[in-house]
Amino acid sequence: MGGYRAIYRRSLEDPEGFWAAAAERISWERRWDRVLDASRAPFYRWFVGGRLNSCYNAVDRHVEAGHGDRLALVYDSAMTGEVRRLTYRELRDEVALFAGALRRQGVGQGDRVIIYMPMVPEAVVAMLACARIGAIHSVVFGGFAARELATRIDDARPKLILSASCGLEPGKTVAYKPLLDEAIAIARHKPERCLILQRPELEAPLVPGRDRDWYEARAEAEPVDCVPVAATDPLYILYTSGTTGQPKGIVRDNGGHAVALFWTMKNIYGVEPGEAFWAASDIGWVVGHSYIVYGPLFHGNTTILYEGKPVGTPDPGAFWRVIAQHDVKALFTAPTAFRAIKREDPEGAHMRRYDLSGFRTLFLAGERCDPDTLLWAQEKLGVPVIDHWWQTETGWAICANPIGIEQLPIKPGSPSVPMPGYDVRVLDDAGRELPPGELGAIVVKLPLPPGTLPTLWNADQRYKDAYLSRYPGFYLTGDAGYRDEDGYLYVMTRTDDVINVAGHRLSTGALEEVIAAHPDVAECAVIGVADELKGELPLAFVVLKAGVDRDREAIKAELVKRVREGIGPVAAFRLVAIVARLPKTRSGKILRGTMKKIADSRPWRMPATIDDPAILDEITAALKELGYARTPSLEA
Ligand code: COA
Ligand code: AMP
To answer: Which of 279, 285, 560, 580 is deepest in the core (most CB within 10 A)?
Structure first.
């Protein structure tokens, strides 16, 4: 097959041949007519005419191939101490039965099902059960508040919602059911039914006529078979933050997704079928979709579903305990998790308590990986640490170090090189390619490879506007960075209003909407300020309406509460600065970039277009009061 360069070149020169060969590893009910359909460019479709079922590929076919006794899923809850193991046969039987329960609730092919659940095996079973009957799941992260859930309910218009009575967070039980009830009350679209998983830690009252008990509904059901769907049919919708408060419904198809994810397991992650693979993320994020659920299962691996944190459950040895106990070969997590571990156990003493001899590789993604964290992990663990870069939109890595093909030299600070099918370019404002070392917009030449988003849910035009119109012929990643002489990419920052808090992607626009709705607020601006642990934290500058003379601390507390209730605790919003004015250009654009540089104590320049430079003194003083802008320096 050749090394990385030969494989990469072939994927760009002959994409159809390359992906058709990869597609041989997937079970098709009907083979495709065309590998790539470009007839509606810039909308591209992969494996047109093909029919398959993603659940069959993830579960049933491994049983049929004689691997029914192999472990498919290990649920490990650091919150309750429970460990539950499901073989591929047990998982198939569970999924087939629960798919029958979904069908009894009237869910059919193409219907949407929202899953708002904690990290329990039932959530994975639910996702696969939807796939089994051709329903489209949309998982909503449990750390989002009712309003965010309501927005997704209105956009996806689900027939059914699957939820649980509670989630377990360190030191507290998070009641999910009141959030669900509130979301349904806010939403214009009302789902016909909800199935609620009662967890013993906190049972929830059910709404008569609407809610059913999960296990009661399951007990009535008969198992059902997999329904083949078109390769181009949606498997799921996953909402992600964009520039506005309206999240983007990323659509994932069935065919391209299965082909691409299968390919990544060996080539990028270097694991063999039967080995344990662990993505310490949440099923509410794309990492959870691709690498807790679909990728490892398509490939016949054992996947680990971990309910817990890297630290505090009970100590910074939690990850090493799981690796040793379940013989994990590869771990995928966010750098922030390692920063948390490093902070509590700088010497790596907890690693020495466990036998990690079987552990081979650590993968990091979700946010920029600072070289210190990567080097610390590498030194303490003594295994390669691979930074790789991707997005909810792409579903799998745009850039990585493909250790299953060949391990390229690791350069800390870079997620390495483009993966097959991704023709990555760095452009200037005018769309000209930049030479190595120069920072610009990172784009990918169309078509994107299989597994990436074909469009946004019910929003073709928004898909074009958001991703394809800035540089015609290219997909806009929203990230900026540069390449070095060896073709390694460095992803430095977002070019839009998206911030990254502990690996969670948030929209400053959405935060601003919630804050601006406070009756005392005239206007506001939210920026992401650098944080040692979480990468970034949201900080709001707030201008009060004229005449408001209430206690400022009370207003700040109300704003914090509003964001917690409007967006969710995951925003970790605590920093508010009440200022007299916001710095703007003469045309009225808020100078968020300048404020961010001042906050992060980075060198900044006085913008030539600023309306009134004196405002920045007040901004700096307010930031200093919050502990930021320690040593800002105005460049000459
Ligand atoms: N359901 C309900 N609430 C949740 C939640 C969930 N699924 N996930 C997080 N929250 C809440 C937390 O309880 C916390 O609430 P609090 O403000 O009352 O304490 C808040 O959201 C922030 O949570 P978290 O982001 O987990 O921060 P933390 O300070 O508790 O822990 C880390 C810090 C670094 C340990 C943690 O962020 C972490 O493990 N990060 C890894 C992130 C990750 O896996 N990202 C996925 C991309 S690969
Ligand atoms: P999400 O869609 O939530 O996965 O977030 C995707 C965004 O996270 C990317 O567009 C980047 O801004 C950031 N990101 C993810 N992985 C990396 C990485 N390895 N290096 C730098 N930024 C990253």
So the answer is: 279
